[in-house]
Amino acid sequence: MGNLVGVRISGVTAHLPPDTLTSEQVEALVGARSPGYTPKPGALRKVTGIDRRHRARDDENPSDLAAAASVKLLSEQGLAAGDVDLLVFAAASHDILEPATAHVVAAKLGASCPVFDVKNACNSFLNGIQMAEALIGTGQASRALICCGEMGSRTIRWQVADRDEYADALPGYTVSDAGAAMLLERSDRPGISYRRFHADSSYWDVATVPGTGAAHQRDPQRDGYIQGSGYRLKQIMLDSTVRRLDGALSEAGLAREDFAVFCMHQATEPYQRAFAEAMAIPEDKFVVTIAEHGNVASATLPLQLSIALQAGRCGPGDRVALIGLAGGISVGIMFVEL
Fold first, then answer.
1. Domains in the chain, please, with CATH?
2. pLDDT digits over 77-91, tens only?
3. Model confidence pTM above 0.90
């Protein structure tokens, strides 16, 4: 269903912590902290295609990364925090259980508008856009700031007992830290022209981060660490995503050739290639960020869009596809006219 008014993306940016870790450094850290296991040198880069990932400082929190991106974006747009009438913090990471991390970000920005969090693994940011668009489209807001601070580095299991534990913890060795921010505004043209979201929740346990939930039995050896099968998650998502994209294009009356770029969540480089081939989209239509920036979770799509805009790969009047993939599992597809 469409909104009563158009909603456009008026700005987007990302904040990347300057400190980085190479795949070789990750292997060395795991080996130094794991008396019973030493990763094979070079294997992590070969399996993931990741050269480096970003690392926030020890004294930084997700709200700091979100606030840094938001300050940058508002400055670029010539706006102040008071010009925003809705703030959505949309990320898998959070500062504390209560209150919403959006309050922490708003306090750091000096914003006084309504706020709330949206959390859906790596689709958090895309769902944040979905929620903000609906509120603007129905007249409940006019300018919304969607921001995120992803700090996957806090969920890495550095000490493993053996190869099996290392394989179970492997998704954590792909993650990277980043902040991102996007402004949505009421518009006299469509802007966001199509959106569809899907879920198959029977696979919720394929990849998890056990922690402080009420249903969780405490286990200090596993709490707070990413675990699961990235390979199985990819296989489940692959067929579903291809079918969903074909259906979305048919519903929207569009073809792959109608898009300047495709921004899609990326967990590893081999998985990115497999998705590109299966979806019959030329690789040069994608904005590939995984090798240099790692898996930045829900910050992936705004990071890719900001890079594409800066590089001149898309601009006003162009059509862009945002494709979100997340554990749970969920798939989100959004078509945007810039």
1. 6-187 (3.40.47.10), 192-337 (3.40.47.10)
2. 999 999 999 999 999
3. yes
